[in-house]
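Exercise (ungraded).
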Amino acid sequence: MKPPTDPSNSMSSDIQSKIADRIQAIPRSGIREFFELVLNAGDVISLGVGEPDFATPWHIREAAIYSLEKGQTSYTSNLGLLELRKSIAKYVAQKFSVAYDPAKEVIVTVGVSEALDLAFRALLNPGEEVIYHEPCYVSYSPTIYMAHGVPVVVETQAEDDFALRASAVEKCITPKTKVIMLNFPTNPTGAVMDPKELQGIADLAIKHDLIVITDEIYSELLYDDRTHPSIAALPGMKERTILMHGFSKAFAMTGFRLGYACAPPALTEAMMKIHQYSMLCASITAQVAAVEALEHGAAPMEEMRKAYWRRRNLVVSKLNGAGLKTFQPGGAFYAFPDIRSTGMTSREFATRLLEEEKVAVVPGTAFGKAGEGFVRACYATAEDQLAIALERVAAFAQRHRG
Amino acid sequence: MDALLDLLTKDSRLSVEDLAARLNLTAAEVQAKVAAWEADGTILGYQAVIDPEKTHSSGVTALIEVRLTPERGGGFDRLAERVAKFDQVKTCWLMSGGFDLAVVVEAGSLQEVARFVAEKLSTLGGVLSTVTHFQLKIYKQNGFLSTPAPDGLRLPITP
């Protein structure tokens, strides 16, 4: 579990011992490990990214530039610009049918990542448990752990297309459970939730008096006329839910680092306490850009969504055609092919694909043990590149059919 | 817009199979739809978008504002269609505002454009006046920037 030490530094073992035990115990992200292999491989087509290939739409960038020209370079209120919080409340009400008070129930953060950290630190006493589902985004478990909580995994199953079952969550509930953490559509699988199961999870949260944190970062990127109810909108849930969302994926604003959390006033206040001492506020330039995105970004977002939809169709049909069984993901921009027909582990598959065909995918195990036998292929890549990459993957799969 | 039409507008060189894979259609469905659109004039043609600076073309392009006298019964249509028929005319729009037709003309030289305006356009009955603007530089055409944004700004692997 320990991160590798640097042998070139003779002091390294001494310095290493100075690092806090609980931080030493955290493994490096599986993605970061793979990152170095990819960098050394040279000219690679990467399906390993976790961000849009589109630059932020120009009208949003232009709004950020204009704010700089005007000299808007100050701090904002800890919670974020009121104008932005009002836009967020309006957008969330329209999109998820949940009404939040922009004055007391919305906090603007540096990405959903910070919002998660704030929420766990605000909620968890040492030893309290958070149930989350794997395969999932790499930061959930370490963030819970760093907040002195205990991460409790529910593994989602390939036969359910990696959707979560309420019955599986129920089995993990103990007297120490405090939070259930959801992320649908899911990174890395693209899975979406069945509304019945979502209601089942809401029932569990109410019955056992639990908090639900829902990471809605991919909720705009849904395909085939699918709708995506947020658990926050179900009866009795708003008062026990922290809804988290951001601008990175739908508006292609990853580098702006901007997200938000909507939660009951007491929870928002608790998160704000941590935020004000650790972060103060999110960048004003990003906040101004975000207002533009929410108020005028619907059409460019829809264009990007349509492009992802076309790419998803292409990727899923080509991967299945290559003998790598891939379910049709309902959202996000990831396909999660089953690579067991090659007889390789996820890591072997990804490493050899990189070496032999110069295509980067991320081993499913980077997202939890349940990802073994799968790899994540991100289709947020230009279609011509995607087509070449898929041909190479098909040739590779052909060669290595087990 | 239909998703197939939308995609053809972005890239008309994709094969029938490639179009089908991107849109969850069968190749036969794509073929049938495209054939129907070609037959009924929904799809008028397919073109490459070329940057003339790269071809070192010596041709000139002009935007000509034309004011017309509308006619009883037909309005501007008869005259506009007559103007549009000239080979030099690449685009011809009826406009709101201070003039009636916006006519984009391509020709080999300034003189050819001048001759077209003086001899063909201005002499048409019903043409009241023309104002000719010559194109100096193209920054964007048909949605394509002349200097596209650079690729490869992303890290190859991100969380």
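Further reading is listed at the end of the chapter. For now, observe: Chain B touches chain A at residues 3, 6-7, 11, 18, 21-24, 149, 151, 153-159 (CB under 8 Å). The helical segments of chain B are 3-10, 16-23, 27-40, 52-55, 77-84, 110-121.
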